[in-house]
TrEMBL record, chain A:
Assigned keywords, A-Z: Cytoplasmic vesicle, Endosome
Record's GO cellular component terms: early endosome; late endosome
One BP annotation, GO: intracellular protein transport
Record region (Disordered): 73-94
Name of the protein this chain belongs to: Spermatogenesis-defective protein 39 homolog
Automatic annotation (TrEMBL), chain B:
Organism: Pavo cristatus (Indian peafowl)
Keyword list, A-Z: Cytoplasmic vesicle, Endosome, Lysosome, Membrane, Protein transport, Transport
Name recorded for this polypeptide: Vacuolar protein sorting-associated protein 33A
Subcellular location: Cytoplasmic vesicle, Autophagosome; Cytoplasmic vesicle, Clathrin-coated vesicle; Early endosome; Late endosome membrane
Membrane topology qualifier: Peripheral membrane protein
Record function comment: Plays a role in vesicle-mediated protein trafficking to lysosomal compartments including the endocytic membrane transport and autophagic pathways. Believed to act as a core component of the putative HOPS and CORVET endosomal tethering complexes which are proposed to be involved in the Rab5-to-Rab7 endosome conversion probably implicating MON1A/B, and via binding SNAREs and SNARE complexes to mediate tethering and docking events during SNARE-mediated membrane fusion.
Length: 492, 611
C-alpha cells in the first residue's frame, strides 16, 4: 500500500499517477483462517440481503433496475426484432434520439388528416383500414367511472377543470362565439397547455379563420400555444397565414426558410432558397440567406463537374485523392477547403476557384489563409504554402506574412508531418522568443534553437543544448564554433 | 434502496412512496399478466421511483423498448405503453397496435399510461388514426417531481426552458405548480412564497388558484418548509453558461450525468484482481450511480475539484490504516470486531478506487501541464476557462475575442462556441452590432447557414442580444451582488464563489440575500433583472403555525424554473452547512442542466428526415 503512504502533494501534483490499486488483501489475510471464513460467510449474508445493498452489473446498471430488466426480460422472449433492440439499448439513452427519426419521415399534418403515409408499410393500411374503422369507437370500453363525465351542462370553467384532471369532455355544445371565447379564456387562466391546445383545436375547427386570428391577436398566451401547435403538427400554410395576419414578417420569413431542411432534392432546395431571398428577413439576416442560396448554387455546379472528372479518371488529383463525400450542403469554409484542395490553381473566373469563392463570399483574409494552408499542407505542397505566406511590397521585395500568426502556421504544418527544413523556416518567424524556443525544441529545429540562444547571448543554455544534438553532426559543430567565438559577449 | 432520500432535513421517501403507490394502483387496474412497453426516455426517471421487483409483484412479466414494428411475442394479457405525451411516440404506438395479430387468442388488451400528463392532443391523434378505441385504460401518471437525492427534486422535463421562454408554452409551469401542490399535500402548506421572474409569478398564481379551487386540499400537516423561493432561469442566464468547477459539476460537464447515473470510459476501471487484468479490458462504458448513498461521494461532490485530491488521499490513508488493523487483531473478540467492519471497509475501498479513477480522468482533461505546448485537451480546457473568467469579471467583453475566433477557425464544437459567445453577450448586457455581426458571420460560414435558426432561438431566449441603449448594467449587478470574488479559497471556502473558482452564481446569491438581510437591500438590482419580484403568504390554520425552537434552522425550498446546474446545487448545500447560516435548502427544478445540454435544447433540429 505504498501508494497510500505517498505524500498528499506528490499524489495530486504528479502527472504520472497510476490507477489507485490496493494490494490483494485476500492472500495476506490467509494467515487469519478464522476471519477469512467469517468474511466469506459474511459475504453470503450481505449478498442475500439485496434490499439495501444493490447488486450492480459491470455496466453499472443495478441488477433489478428498470432499464436492466428491459434487457433481461426482452432477451428471454423470442422476437425476431431483438437484434435491433439490443444495439439500440447498448447505446443507452442517447440512442433514443434515433428512434423518432424513423417515423418523422412524413409530415404530421398528413397524420392528422388520417392519410396513410408509411411507404414501407403499404399493406398495412389495406389490411387494417377496416379494423381501424371499427376500432373507432373510443368511448365504448372506457371504465365506468368516466361515464358520468358526460354531462351537457358543465360551465366553461367546470369543463376546463374537468379537462385539467384528464377527463374527457365534449366541447361541441359551446356554439356561440361568445361561449367559445369564454371557454378559451378559462383554459388560458388554468395555464394547462394540454387543455389550451385542446380548446384551440376545437376553435380552429369551428371558427372561420379571420375570426380565429382576430380573437387570438388579443389573447397572446393562446396565440403562442396555437403557433407552437401548428409548428409541431407541421401545418405550415396556416401558420404562415397566421404570422402574416399578425404582421410578424420576420418570423414568417424564418419559418418559411426552415422548410428547406425538409427538402432532400438539391435542385428543389436551390429553387426553394431562391424563393426565400425575397422574404422579409431582418436586414442582417438577408445577406446570409442570399449567401446560402449562392453557395448551394455553386456547390451544384462544382459537384456535377467534379463527379464527372472523377468518373472519367483523367484528373490526377481525383485519382490520387478520391473524394470521400459530396460537397453538396457543406458549410462555406468546408467548401473553400475543398476548392483549395482540388481546384487551387484555377483562374479566378471559374466557379470552383478559391479566389472566386473568397471574393464572392467576402471571406476574411485570416479565414482564407487558414483554410488554404490546411488544404495545401495536407497535400504536402510546401511551395504553395510558401507562396501563400509571401507578400511582395511595392518595391518588389518579398516578405513573409501570416495573418494567423506563425505559431499557428507551424502547428498546421506539423500536424501534416512537414519535414524539418520546411518547419524550421516558419518556426524562425515566430515572434515571441519563448514560444519560438519551445516550438523549435519540440520539433527539433536545431538551427533555430542555436540561433535563438546565440541572439540571446545565453551561453549556458547553448552548452546545455549540445547534448540534444547528435554527436559529430553539423549542429554540434555549429555550437562548438559559437562557443569558441571570442567576439560574442555572452551574458553568462 | 432509498435510504439517501431520508438523510436530509426533509424526508423525501414519502414522495417516492406516494409515487410507488400510484404506480401500483394503476398496474392493478389492468388485471392479469402484463408487459410494459417503455418510452426509453422514461426508464431513467422511473428507475428512481421503482425497481423491477415492484413491477414484478404486480404481474409485469416482460418489458420492451418502444419502437416501430410488430410487438414482440409475449404471453401476457395486457400490453401497457408507458410514454410521454408526444406525437411521434403516438405514431410508433399506432404502428404497434395495427400490427397486432387480431386472430391471436387470447387477445391482448392495450393500455396507455401517459407520463406526466394525459394529452388530449395525443388522444385526438390516436383517434384520427382509428386506434384510440383499442386502448382500455388511458391514464396519466403525474411524475411531476422525482426525488433525486435527500435534498433534490427534478421534473426531468428537458424542453421546459425552451417551452417557457421561446414558445411561451406554460405547460411545464402548470406541472411545476401541480408538483408543488403534491409536495404541500405531503409536507404541509408552505407559509411564505417569494419569487423573481415572469414564470415564477405564473407558478405562484397557479398555486394560489389551485388552492382556492380545491378547498379540500387544506391539510392538517405541520409545515416542513418555511419558505418557497421561485426563480426564473432567465433571471440568471449567466451561471449555466460557465463551466462548473465542482467535482460533480465537472463530471456532468465532461461525461453527462443522467438520472444520477454516469457512463465513464472503462480504461481506468480495470479489474483489480491480478491475473484478470490486462487480458480483456472492458470496452463497454463503466456505469456508476452517483448520489449521497455513497458516503465518500456525498463528501466530495460539492467541493471545488482542486480540493478533491487531498480528501481522496486522506481517505486512502484512513482506509489503509483500517485494513492494517487486522495485523493487530489477536483475540477472537478483536477479530470479530474487525470482521464486522469489513463490508463497510470494502465498500469504502471500492468507492475510493472509483472516485480516484474518476478524478484522474477529469484531471487529465482539466489540468494543464506545463507552459504553452501544443493544444491538448487540458490546454484547451484551461484557455476556455480563462476566457470565461475574463468575461465574468468584466474584462474585454465588448470586443471580438481572439480565443473564440480561433476556436471557430479550428471548428471546435458549435455548442462550445455558442456557450462562449452567449456568455460574453450576457456579461456585456448584449453585444455591439459590429461584434454580434462578426460572430454570426463566422459561425454561419464555418458551421452552415442553416444555423441562423439556432442563432435566432438564442436571441429570442435573450442569451444572445444586441446591446441597446448603449448601457451595460452587468458591472453594477456584479458589484452589488458580489458576483466576482478575487480572493477565492477553493480548499476551505468561505463563500459560494468557490463553485466556479471566483464567480458566485447569481441565482444562489439571490437566495442567500433573501435569507439575510432580505431583498429590500437590493431593490435596485432586482429591478435590473428581468421579471417581477414578489412575496405571497399562505394562511395556515391556527395550531399549525410553527413555533421555532431556538437555534433551529429554517427550511427553504428553492425552485429553479428552467433548470439548475450541479454547481448551483453545491452552492446552496454550502449555504445549508454554514454554521451560522440559519437556513437549510431543498432544491427543486424542471431539469438538471449544464451549459451544453441547455444550449442543445435551444438548437434547431437540423437533421433532415431520412428517407
Amino acid at each position: 500500500m505504498s501508494r497510500a503512504r505517498a505524500d498528499e502533494e506528490e499524489y495530486w501534483h504528479s502527472s504520472k499517477f497510476r490507477a489507485f490499486t490496493f494490494d490483494d488483501e485476500d492472500d495476506e489475510l490467509s494467515q487469519l483462517k478464522e476471519s477469512k471464513r467469517a468474511v466469506n460467510s459474511l459475504r453470503d449474508i450481505v449478498d442475500d440481503d439485496d434490499d439495501d445493498l444493490e447488486k450492480v452489473s459491470w455496466s453499472g446498471e443495478p441488477v433489478g433496475s428498470i432499464s436492466w430488466s428491459i434487457k433481461e426480460t426482452a432477451s428471454s422472449s423470442s422476437s425476431s426484432s431483438l437484434e435491433g433492440r439490443d444495439t439500440s439499448l447498448q447505446k443507452g439513452s442517447s440512442s433514443y434520439a434515433a428512434l423518432p427519426k424513423q417515423v418523422s419521415s412524413y409530415s404530421l399534418s398528413n397524420l392528422f388528416k388520417g392519410r396513410n403515409r408509411l411507404p414501407s408499410l403499404p399493406s398495412l393500411s389495406d389490411a387494417f383500414s377496416d379494423t381501424g374503422a371499427k376500432n373507432y369507437a373510443p368511448e365504448l370500453r372506457r371504465p365506468k367511472a368516466e361515464y358520468k363525465d358526460y354531462s351537457n351542462d358543465w360551465s366553461p370553467r367546470d369543463t376546463v377543470r374537468r379537462m385539467q384532471r384528464g377527463k374527457v369532455c365534449s366541447l361541441e355544445r359551446f356554439r356561440s362565439l361568445q361561449d367559445k371565447l369564454v371557454l378559451l379564456d378559462e383554459a388560458v387562466a388554468g395555464h394547462d397547455g394540454n387543455v389550451i391546445t385542446a380548446v384551440l383545436i376545437f376553435l380552429k375547427r369551428t371558427l372561420r379563420r379571420e375570426v380565429l386570428f382576430r380573437e387570438l391577436e388579443v389573447r397572446q398566451v393562446a396565440l403562442c400555444h396555437l403557433i407552437h401547435f401548428l409548428k409541431e403538427t407541421g401545418e405550415q400554410k396556416l401558420l404562415l397565414d397566421l404570422l402574416r395576419f399578425l404582421d410578424r414578417t420576420e418570423e414568417v420569413a424564418l419559418s418559411q426558410y426552415r422548410e428547406h431542411l425538409n427538402i432532400q432534392d438539391v435542385e428543389k432546395k436551390r429553387e426553394f432558397l431562391k424563393g426565400c431571398i425575397g422574404l422579409p428577413f431582418s436586414a442582417e439576416d438577408i445577406s446570409h440567406i442570399q449567401d446560402h442560396y449562392t453557395l448551394l448554387e455553386r456547390q451544384i455546379i462544382i459537384e456535377a463537374n467534379d463527379r464527372h472528372l472523377e468518373m472519367a479518371g483523367q484528373s490526377e488529383i481525383f485519382r490520387k485523392y478520391p473524394r470521400k463525400a459530396s460537397i453538396l450542403n457543406m458549410p462555406l469554409v468546408t467548401t473553400l477547403f475543398y476548392s483549395c484542395f482540388y481546384h487551387y490553381t484555377e483562374a479566378e473566373g471559374t466557379f470552383s476557384s478559391p479566389t472566386n469563392l473568397k471574393k464572392t463570399f467576402k471571406i476574411p483574409d485570416k479565414q482564407y489563409v487558414l483554410t488554404a494552408l490546411a488544404a495545401r499542407a495536407k497535400l504536402r505542397a510546401w511551395e504553395d504554402v510558401d507562396a501563400l505566406l509571401t507578400t511582395k511590397n511595392w518595391l518588389g521585395y518579398t516578405k513573409k506574412k501570416a495573418p494567423i500568426g506563425f505559431h499557428r502556421v507551424v502547428e498546421i504544418l506539423q500536424r501534416n508531418n512537414a519535414p524539418v527544413q520546411v518547419l524550421q523556416e516558419y518556426v524562425r518567424l515566430v515572434d515571441d522568443v519563448e514560444t519560438r524556443l519551445n516550438l523549435a525544441t519540440k520539433y527539433k529545429c536545431h538551427d533555430v534553437v542555436i540561433d535563438t540562444y546565440r541572439d540571446l547571448k545565453d551561453r549556458i543554455q547553448l552548452m546545455a543544448y549540445k547534448c540534444k544534438v547528435e554527436r559529430g553532426s553539423a549542429e554540434e559543430e555549429k555550437i562548438n564554433s559559437l562557443l569558441s567565438n571570442m567576439q560574442i559577449r555572452w551574458k553568462n | 434502496m432509498a435510504a439517501h432520500l431520508s438523510s436530509g432535513r426533509v424526508n423525501l421517501t414519502a414522495l417516492r412512496e406516494a409515487g410507488r403507490r400510484e404506480l401500483r394502483e394503476f398496474l392493478d387496474k389492468c388485471a392479469g399478466s402484463k408487459a410494459i412497453v417503455w418510452d426509453e426516455y422514461l426508464t431513467g426517471p422511473f428507475g428512481l421511483i421503482a425497481q423491477y421487483s415492484l413491477l414484478k409483484e404486480h404481474e409485469v412479466e416482460k418489458m420492451f423498448t418502444l419502437k416501430p414494428g410488430r410487438l414482440p411475442q409475449a404471453d401476457v394479457r395486457n400490453i401497457i405503453f408507458f410514454v410521454r405525451p408526444r406525437l411521434e411516440l403516438m405514431d410508433i404506438i399506432t404502428d404497434n397496435v395495427r400490427r397486432e395479430d387480431r386472430g391471436r387468442s387470447p387477445q391482448r388488451d392495450f393500455h396507455i399510461l401517459f407520463v406526466p400528463r394525459r394529452s388530449l392532443l395525443c388522444e385526438q391523434w390516436l383517434k384520427e388514426q382509428g386506434v384510440l378505441g383499442s386502448f382500455i385504460h388511458r391514464e396519466q401518471y403525474s411524475l411531476d417531481l422525482i426525488p433525486f437525492d435527500g435534498d433534490l427534486l427534478s421534473m426531468e422535463s428537458e424542453s421546459a426552458f425552451k417551452e417557457c421562454y421561446l414558445e411561451s408554452d406554460q405547460t411545464s409551469l402548470y406541472h411545476a405548480a401541480k408538483g408543488l401542490m403534491t409536495l404541500q399535500a405531503l409536507y404541509g402548506t408552505i407559509p411564505q412564497i417569494f419569487g423573481k421572474g415572469e414564470c415564477a409569478r405564473h407558478v405562484a398564481n397557479m398555486m394560489i388558484r389551485m388552492k382556492r379551487e380545491f378547498p379540500g386540499s387544506q391539510n392538517s400537516i405541520f409545515p416542513v418548509f418555511d419558505t418557497l423561493l421561485l426563480l426564473d432561469r432567465n433571471v440568471d442566464l449567466l451561471t449555466p453558461l460557465a463551466t462548473q468547477l465542482t467535482y460533480e459539476g465537472l463530471i456532468d460537464e465532461i461525461y453527462g450525468i443522467q438520472n444520477t447515473y454516469v457512463k465513464l470510459p472503462p480504461e481506468k476501471f480495470a479489474p483489480k484482481k491480478q491475473g484478470e487484468g490486462g487480458k480483456d479490458l472492458p470496452t463497454e462504458p463503466k456505469k456508476l450511480q452517483l448520489n449521497s448513498a455513497e458516503e465518500l461521494y456525498a463528501e466530495i461532490r460539492d467541493k471545488n475539484f482542486n480540493a478533491v485530491g487531498s480528501v481522496l488521499s486522506k481517505k486512502a490513508k484512513i482506509i489503509s490504516a483500517a485494513f492494517e488493523e487486522r495485523h493487530h487483531a489477536k483475540t477472537v473478540g478483536e477479530i470479530k470486531q474487525f470482521v464486522s467492519q469489513l463490508p463497510h471497509m470494502q465498500a469504502a475501498r471500492s468507492s475510493l478506487a472509483n472516485h480516484t479513477s474518476i478524478a484522474e480522468l477529469i484531471k487529465d482533461i482539466t489540468i494543464a501541464i506545463g507552459f504553452y505546448s501544443f493544444p491538448t485537451a487540458s490546454e484547451d480546457f484551461f484557455d476556455n476557462l480563462t476566457v470565461e473568467q475574463e468575461f465574468m469579471s468584466g474584462i474585454d467583453t465588448d470586443k471580438v475575442n481572439n480565443y473564440i475566433e480561433d476556436c471557430i477557425a479550428q471548428k471546435h464544437s458549435l455548442i462550445k462556441i455558442l456557450r462562449l459567445v452567449c456568455l460574453q453577450s450576457v456579461c456585456n448586457n448584449g453585444l455591439k452590432q459590429k461584434v454580434l455581426d462578426h460572430y454570426k458571420r463566422e459561425i454561419l460560414q464555418t458551421y452552415g447557414y442553416e444555423h441562423i435558426l439556432t442563432l435566432n432561438n438564442l436571441e429570442k431566449a435573450g442569451l444572445l442580444k444586441l446591446q441597446t441603449g448603449g448601457r451595460n448594467n452587468y458591472p453594477t449587478i456584479r458589484k452589488t451582488l458580489r458576483l466576482w470574488m478575487d480572493d477565492v479559497n477553493e480548499q476551505n471556502p468561505n463563500d459560494i464563489s468557490y463553485v466556479y473558482s471566483g464567480y458566485a452564481p447569481l441565482s444562489v446569491r439571490l437566495a442567500q440575500l433573501l435569507a439575510r438581510p432580505g431583498w429590500r437591500s437590493i431593490e435596485e438590482v432586482l429591478k435590473m433583472l428581468p421579471g417581477p419580484h414578489f412575496e405571497e403568504r399562505q394562511q395556515l390554520p391556527t395550531g399549525l403555525q410553527k413555533k421555532r425552537q431556538h437555534g433551529e434552522n429554517r427550511v427553504t425550498l428553492v425552485f429553479f424554473l428552467g433548470g439548475v446546474t450541479y454547481a448551483e446545487i453545491a452552492a446552496l448545500r454550502f449555504l445549508s452547512q454554514m454554521e451560522d447560516g440559519g437556513t437549510e435548502y431543498v432544491i427543486a427544478t424542471t431539469k438538471l442542466i449544464n451549459g451544453t445540454t441547455w444550449i442543445k435544447s435551444l438548437m434547431e433540429k437540423l437533421e433532415p428526415a431520412p428517407f
